[in-house]
Structure formats: C-alpha cells, structure tokens
Amino acid sequence: MRKANTVERNQKLAGEYPGMGEAMKGYRQVLPHIEYQQKMALNVGDRNFELIYLKNVHSEADTAIWLPKERVLWATAAVGVKRYPNIRPFLTIPDILAAIKLMRALSPEVVIAGHGAPGTIRIFDEMERYYALLLERVGRMAREGKTLERIKAELKMPEFDDWAGKERFPATWTRPGGR
Predict the structure, then answer these.
(1) When comparing pLDDT for 71 and 19, which is higher?
(2) Which of 12, 87, 113, 152 is at a distance of 20 to 30 A from 124, taking alpha carbons?
(3) Shortest CA distance to 124 belongs to which of 139, 114, 134?
(4) Which residues neighbour 45 within 8 Å (Cβ) at sequence distance 6 or greater?
(5) How far apart (Å, rounded) are the C-alpha atoms in residues 66 and 87?
(6) Within a 10 A sphere around the Cβ of 60, how many other Cβ atoms?
(7) CA pair distance 89, 85, nearest whole angstrom
(8) Which of 65, 57, 59 is nearest to 106 (CA)?
C-alpha cells in the first residue's frame, strides 16, 4: 500500500497551501487500533454495523458501513450525487463498478454517498450510467485510432454537464494503462 497520508506528505502539503500550515499545527498521525480484511461487524448496543472493504474506489482504504436492520448504507466516496468522481492513478473503473455491484446487492433503502444528499440505489444507477458512457466513448475513440491527447480534447459528456467537480473530468479517464 502506498503511504498516502504520511507525516512527510502532510508536511509537504502544509507548505504548499496557504492556511494549511496553521490548520496542521498540533497534528499527529494516529494509526488504527483495529484492522480488518474484507468485512467486520461491530455491535453497539442494539445496533449492528457491518464494515465492508471497498477495493480501490476512492482511496486505498475505503469502507462502506451497512446497517442491515435499518437498511441504510454509507457508500463512502465510492459514489457521489451529481458529482464527477475523483479517480486517483491507483484506482480502476472495474474495481469501482464491482464495489457498486456489491453495495447494490445489499438492497439498501437509503444510500448515503460520500458527497451529496442521501438517496436511494438510484445513486448507483447514475454512477453506472456515467462509467458506461465514459468507457463506451473513450473505447470508440481509441478504436478509431485517436491519440490520448486527441481523446482528451474531443471527448464530451453533455449528459453530466450539471454535475459538480467538472474540473476533475479529464482525470477520470486518462490513467496509465487505459484504466
């Protein structure tokens, strides 16, 4: 696993962004006291929380939180509501789609996305539609022999013009290895 949140990285960021240095004063990294692999159940009073590892959906350590009795799922930043995803270089669209499929299979009544208002499984529908169109359009352009630079310049996704985070759009499909 990459060391995404090391003290050194945080100190570097604090020097690069105005105001972050002040916000970081007194910061100390606290590592987890408990680790789990794929799933873990926590019982707090009469409430059951199921922690579910989501491989490579936003960071390297995303955990969905499922409350089975209440049928509520916190989906982390694996999905957002009308928001372009922030896909980092170590993430893949197949991993993200697999995580969405896993969460959908729980049949939640309420889905709480990492960003945006709580909703239903329709949040998953929108993200799957986005990725399907993205893969189809980029794939077609690649099969036509277009270069990555040309694809970047020509690719349009007008169906999602009302989504937030549009400045991240090119980052969602220009990863090394065609991910």
Answers:
(1) 71
(2) 152
(3) 114
(4) none
(5) 23
(6) 15
(7) 13
(8) 65
* Cα distance between residue 80 and residue 100, in whole Å: 11
**Mean pLDDT of all residues in 40-65:** 89
Q: What pTM does this model have?
A: 0.76
47-54/62-67 β-pairing = antiparallel
Residues 64 and 104: their CA atoms lie apart, in Å, by 12
Q: What is the pLDDT of residue 103?
A: 96
What are the start-end ranges of the H helices in 17-169? Answer: 20-23, 93-104, 122-143, 148-154
pLDDT digits (tens, 9 = 90+) for 58-95: 877 789 999 999 999 999 888 999 998 877 777 888 99
Comparing 72 with 165, the larger pLDDT belongs to 72
Are the beta carbons of 58 and 75 closer than 8 angstroms?
no
Whole-number pLDDT of residue 177: 38
What's the first-to-final CA gap in the chain, in angstroms? Answer: 19
| pLDDT average, residue stretch 41-50 | 92
Q: 153 near 141, Cβ under 8 Å?
A: no
Structure tokens given for 97: 């789609």
CA atoms within 13 A on the CB side of 117: 2
